[in-house]
Amino acid sequence: MLYIFNDKVVYDDTQCSLTNIDTNDTILLPATASRLLSLFIKYQGTTLTRTEILNSVWDEYGYKASNNTLSQYISLIRKNFQLLGDNTEFLITIPRTGFVLTTKVEVRLVESLTDASSFVSTLDNPLTPLEHSESLASFHTEHTDNSLIMTKDNLSSLLKENDIKYFHYINVLSFIILCSVLLLFYLYRGEIKTTKLYLAGKIDSCSVYTLYKSSKDLIGSKLVTIEHIAKDKLPCVANNFYISQLEDSLLYDKTGRLFISRCGYQDNISKVISTCKSLFTHE
User: Fold this and answer.
1) In 10 A of CB 223, how many CB atoms?
2) Same domain for 183 and 115?
3) Range scoring the smallest mean pLDDT among 5-14, 53-62, 181-190
4) Would residue 155 count as lying in a domain?
5) DSSP letter at 163?
6) Mean per-residue pLDDT over the chain, rounded
7) Number of domains in the chain
8) pLDDT value of position 149
């Protein structure tokens, strides 16, 4: 499902992404951060204790986390919204209790990005508070009914070991395909729409670009992780550059996916790409 925050940022809980409607800039969230944001949306206006959040976002998925980890993910979500142009203080810290998604922020549920754009273009006729409440109530009811049917015990009996392995395989394959498509957008930018790259730094003489924008606090940590993999598997070569993308969960939980490609030019004048060598890891 898609949710619009303040008619500026669209959150896609399926793709774990945040997108600015006006600029189409997109930031991918770690799966954990996506679950956390979905939880706040579901209980907007209700203060959630740290224990409740840790149980729902980490414990129920077989992970363990501390209050410090929770605070880091809250900070990550806030910074990503700010990077996309929404500086609203929507996740409020309740001292010695927990956090709440304030009702002052407007969250709308839509089916597609087309619907999201239509919301923005018809701001003169916004939803009334009653219509908005009914929409969210319908969503909450649907998910509550589903949770009654698919209990944890039922899932444990239905998901066999091979099914889980197959799911992870599809997940990894989808990530590789996404990165490859974005890389092709860059290489053939003269023929099709270009993809914007963001300079993260350098590894020796090779510039390092990322596919999505990151906060200044994360760029340094990401570059260190990319450099560690690159120097071992894809060392810098003269007149080459790197294109890379990694999940933020690698920095927090030490688990996640990383894509890196080293590309070279045919010559220094035309800047035509001659070849690329790519690597994908899943820690």
Assistant:
1) 20
2) no
3) 181-190
4) no
5) H
6) 78
7) 2
8) 38
Distance CA 69, CA 24 (A): 30
**Under 8 Å between Cβ of 18 and 27:** yes
Tens of pLDDT along 32-63?
999 999 999 999 999 999 999 999 999 998 88
User: What's the pLDDT tens digit per position in 131-174?
Assistant: 544 544 454 444 444 433 334 444 454 444 555 556 666 777 77
Segment 9-21 shows an average pLDDT of 92
Residue that has been written with the tokens 């053939």 in this structure: 188
pLDDT at 121 over 60: no
DSSP-assigned letters across all residues of 178-232: HHHHHHHHHHTTTTS-----EEEEEETTEEEEESS---HHHHHHHHHHHHHHHHH
Q: Is the dihedral of CA 100, 109, 33, 216 positive or negative?
A: negative
Q: Are residues 168 and 117 in the same domain?
A: no
Q: Are residues 202 and 112 in the same domain?
A: no
Of 45-54, 127-136, 182-191, 245-254, least confident by mean pLDDT is 127-136
275 Cβ contact partners less than 8 Å away, ≥ 6 residues apart = 263, 264
Whole-angstrom distance, CA of residue 74 vs CA of residue 3: 18
Q: Are residues 175 and 278 in the same domain?
A: yes
Domain assignment present for 145: no
Cα–Cα dist 194/188, whole Å: 8
Q: What percent of the chain has pLDDT over 90?
A: 34
The DSSP secondary-structure symbol of 30 reads P
User: Strand pairing partners for 19?
Assistant: 10, 26
Residue 227 falls inside a structural domain: yes
Among candidate residues 69, 100, 126, the one where a domain is terminated = 126
Give per-residue burial for 19-31: e unless 16+ CB within 10 Å, then b. bbbeeebbbbbbb
Residues 76 and 179 in one domain: no
Same domain, 166 and 122: no
Q: What domain range includes position 50? A: 2-126
